[in-house]
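User: Before I run my own analysis I want an independent prediction to cross-check against. Here's the chain; please return only the structure tokens and, at the end, one sentence I can use as a sanity check.
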Amino acid sequence: MEKIQYKLEVFEGPMDLLLQLISKKKVSINDVPIMEIIEQYLDYVRQMQEENLDISSEFLEMAARLLYIKTVSLLPVHEEAEKLVEELRGELTEYQDCKLVAAKLQDSANG
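Assistant: Structure tokens:
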């Protein structure tokens, strides 16, 4: 039987992966269905493990952070989960803004 092969994209870091998952949903960072994104992120990390790729500690740290958010959100009173999600959204927004500025700077340097 032939083994199924996956082509995994290369990301600069865990924030890059999260932004790509969000852009696939075509939603604003503020409207992200966080539980769905967590599942997709963890699936991606599992695929990297199955392909025997070296997974950097940054990706594993983000996976642990996302699992913690998911766990806390399952508690009856999940105020902490809401705070953690807002914190993550803020970091993603800042990261996205930095990527846009870096792209503009690169364009102006090349032009």
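Sanity check: Confidence is low (pLDDT under 50) at residues 3-7.
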